[in-house]
Write a structure and sequence with these properties.
mainly alpha, 171 residues
Protein backbone atom coordinates (compact mmCIF):
# COMPACT_ATOMS: atom_id res chain seq x y z
CA UNK A 1 0.00 0.00 0.00
CA UNK A 2 1.35 3.38 -1.06
CA UNK A 3 0.24 6.86 0.00
CA UNK A 4 -0.53 7.59 -3.66
CA UNK A 5 -2.93 4.65 -4.08
CA UNK A 6 -6.45 5.74 -5.02
CA UNK A 7 -7.96 3.22 -2.62
CA UNK A 8 -6.39 2.09 0.62
CA UNK A 9 -7.05 -1.26 2.20
CA UNK A 10 -9.90 -0.77 4.67
CA UNK A 11 -8.28 -3.36 6.93
CA UNK A 12 -4.95 -1.53 7.13
CA UNK A 13 -6.56 1.91 7.46
CA UNK A 14 -8.99 0.62 10.10
CA UNK A 15 -6.20 -1.02 12.06
CA UNK A 16 -4.15 2.19 11.99
CA UNK A 17 -7.11 4.25 13.21
CA UNK A 18 -7.78 1.67 15.91
CA UNK A 19 -4.15 1.77 17.04
CA UNK A 20 -4.36 5.56 17.26
CA UNK A 21 -6.68 5.03 20.25
CA UNK A 22 -3.70 3.86 22.32
CA UNK A 23 -1.66 7.09 22.25
CA UNK A 24 -4.87 9.13 22.45
CA UNK A 25 -5.80 7.50 25.76
CA UNK A 26 -2.23 7.39 27.07
CA UNK A 27 -1.36 11.01 26.29
CA UNK A 28 -4.69 12.84 26.41
CA UNK A 29 -6.85 10.56 28.55
CA UNK A 30 -9.51 10.57 25.83
CA UNK A 31 -10.29 8.66 22.67
CA UNK A 32 -11.00 9.76 19.14
CA UNK A 33 -14.00 11.98 18.61
CA UNK A 34 -14.83 15.05 16.58
CA UNK A 35 -18.00 16.83 17.65
CA UNK A 36 -16.54 18.25 20.88
CA UNK A 37 -14.03 20.26 18.89
CA UNK A 38 -16.86 22.20 17.27
CA UNK A 39 -18.24 23.04 20.72
CA UNK A 40 -14.78 24.28 21.75
CA UNK A 41 -14.59 26.43 18.63
CA UNK A 42 -18.12 27.78 19.15
CA UNK A 43 -17.38 28.51 22.80
CA UNK A 44 -14.25 30.49 21.96
CA UNK A 45 -16.10 32.34 19.18
CA UNK A 46 -18.89 33.19 21.63
CA UNK A 47 -16.30 34.50 24.13
CA UNK A 48 -15.49 37.27 21.67
CA UNK A 49 -19.00 38.65 22.06
CA UNK A 50 -19.84 37.62 25.62
CA UNK A 51 -17.12 36.84 28.18
CA UNK A 52 -19.68 35.28 30.55
CA UNK A 53 -20.05 32.30 28.19
CA UNK A 54 -17.14 30.63 30.00
CA UNK A 55 -19.18 30.69 33.21
CA UNK A 56 -21.96 28.57 31.71
CA UNK A 57 -22.05 24.91 32.63
CA UNK A 58 -22.09 23.65 29.02
CA UNK A 59 -19.22 25.64 27.47
CA UNK A 60 -16.92 25.92 30.50
CA UNK A 61 -15.40 22.42 30.30
CA UNK A 62 -14.82 22.71 26.55
CA UNK A 63 -13.15 26.12 26.81
CA UNK A 64 -10.83 25.30 29.70
CA UNK A 65 -9.81 21.68 29.04
CA UNK A 66 -6.78 20.85 26.87
CA UNK A 67 -8.46 17.55 25.98
CA UNK A 68 -10.55 19.33 23.37
CA UNK A 69 -7.50 21.01 21.79
CA UNK A 70 -6.41 17.51 20.78
CA UNK A 71 -9.80 16.82 19.21
CA UNK A 72 -9.70 20.14 17.34
CA UNK A 73 -6.26 19.22 15.99
CA UNK A 74 -7.67 15.82 15.00
CA UNK A 75 -10.50 17.42 12.99
CA UNK A 76 -8.08 19.78 11.22
CA UNK A 77 -5.77 16.82 10.54
CA UNK A 78 -8.64 14.81 9.05
CA UNK A 79 -9.47 17.63 6.63
CA UNK A 80 -5.83 18.19 5.68
CA UNK A 81 -5.22 14.45 5.36
CA UNK A 82 -8.22 14.01 3.07
CA UNK A 83 -7.01 16.88 0.89
CA UNK A 84 -3.46 15.53 0.81
CA UNK A 85 -4.70 12.03 -0.04
CA UNK A 86 -6.78 13.40 -2.91
CA UNK A 87 -3.81 15.37 -4.26
CA UNK A 88 -1.30 12.50 -3.96
CA UNK A 89 -3.59 9.99 -5.67
CA UNK A 90 -5.01 12.37 -8.30
CA UNK A 91 -8.45 11.10 -7.26
CA UNK A 92 -10.57 14.02 -8.37
CA UNK A 93 -14.32 13.67 -8.45
CA UNK A 94 -17.11 15.48 -10.20
CA UNK A 95 -18.38 18.47 -8.22
CA UNK A 96 -21.87 16.98 -8.41
CA UNK A 97 -22.21 13.21 -8.37
CA UNK A 98 -24.68 11.67 -10.82
CA UNK A 99 -26.42 9.86 -7.95
CA UNK A 100 -27.00 13.14 -6.10
CA UNK A 101 -28.19 14.85 -9.28
CA UNK A 102 -30.69 12.07 -9.92
CA UNK A 103 -31.91 11.88 -6.32
CA UNK A 104 -32.23 15.61 -5.69
CA UNK A 105 -33.03 16.80 -9.21
CA UNK A 106 -30.61 19.72 -8.84
CA UNK A 107 -27.27 20.11 -10.56
CA UNK A 108 -26.10 23.39 -9.00
CA UNK A 109 -22.88 23.13 -6.98
CA UNK A 110 -24.11 25.93 -4.70
CA UNK A 111 -27.28 23.98 -3.85
CA UNK A 112 -25.11 20.92 -3.18
CA UNK A 113 -22.86 22.86 -0.81
CA UNK A 114 -25.80 24.47 1.01
CA UNK A 115 -27.54 21.12 1.50
CA UNK A 116 -24.28 19.47 2.58
CA UNK A 117 -23.74 22.23 5.14
CA UNK A 118 -27.31 21.94 6.44
CA UNK A 119 -27.00 18.15 6.66
CA UNK A 120 -23.71 18.47 8.52
CA UNK A 121 -25.23 21.01 10.89
CA UNK A 122 -28.18 18.74 11.65
CA UNK A 123 -25.85 15.78 12.19
CA UNK A 124 -23.60 17.81 14.50
CA UNK A 125 -26.59 19.16 16.44
CA UNK A 126 -27.88 15.62 16.93
CA UNK A 127 -24.44 14.41 17.96
CA UNK A 128 -24.12 17.07 20.63
CA UNK A 129 -27.69 16.49 21.77
CA UNK A 130 -26.85 12.79 22.19
CA UNK A 131 -23.55 13.54 23.90
CA UNK A 132 -21.31 12.03 21.24
CA UNK A 133 -20.68 11.74 17.53
CA UNK A 134 -20.39 8.83 15.14
CA UNK A 135 -16.60 8.75 15.42
CA UNK A 136 -16.78 8.95 19.20
CA UNK A 137 -19.25 6.08 19.44
CA UNK A 138 -17.96 4.06 16.47
CA UNK A 139 -14.26 4.29 17.25
CA UNK A 140 -13.87 5.08 20.91
CA UNK A 141 -17.08 3.66 22.35
CA UNK A 142 -16.79 0.33 20.57
CA UNK A 143 -13.08 0.10 21.46
CA UNK A 144 -14.09 0.46 25.11
CA UNK A 145 -16.96 -2.01 24.64
CA UNK A 146 -19.47 0.64 25.74
CA UNK A 147 -23.03 -0.69 25.77
CA UNK A 148 -24.41 2.65 24.53
CA UNK A 149 -22.10 2.55 21.51
CA UNK A 150 -23.09 -1.02 20.67
CA UNK A 151 -26.68 0.26 20.43
CA UNK A 152 -25.95 3.59 18.74
CA UNK A 153 -23.65 2.37 15.95
CA UNK A 154 -26.15 -0.11 14.42
CA UNK A 155 -28.83 2.59 14.73
CA UNK A 156 -26.59 5.02 12.83
CA UNK A 157 -26.11 2.47 10.06
CA UNK A 158 -29.84 1.74 9.90
CA UNK A 159 -30.63 5.46 9.77
CA UNK A 160 -28.09 6.01 7.02
CA UNK A 161 -29.46 3.14 4.95
CA UNK A 162 -33.05 4.33 5.42
CA UNK A 163 -32.10 7.89 4.44
CA UNK A 164 -30.27 6.67 1.34
CA UNK A 165 -33.25 4.56 0.31
CA UNK A 166 -35.64 7.50 0.72
CA UNK A 167 -33.44 9.99 -1.15
CA UNK A 168 -32.69 7.60 -4.00
CA UNK A 169 -36.41 6.79 -4.17
CA UNK A 170 -35.84 3.07 -3.70
CA UNK A 171 -38.15 2.87 -0.72
Amino acid sequence: MSLSDKVWSPYVAGALIGLLQIPAFMLMDTGLGASSSFVKFAGHAALIFDPTVADGSYFSKYITSSKYVWQTALVIGIALGAFLSMRLSNARRDRISPVWKEAMGVSSPIARYVLAFLGGFILLFGARLAGGCTSGHGLTGLAQLAVSSSIVVPAIFAGGIATALVFTRRF
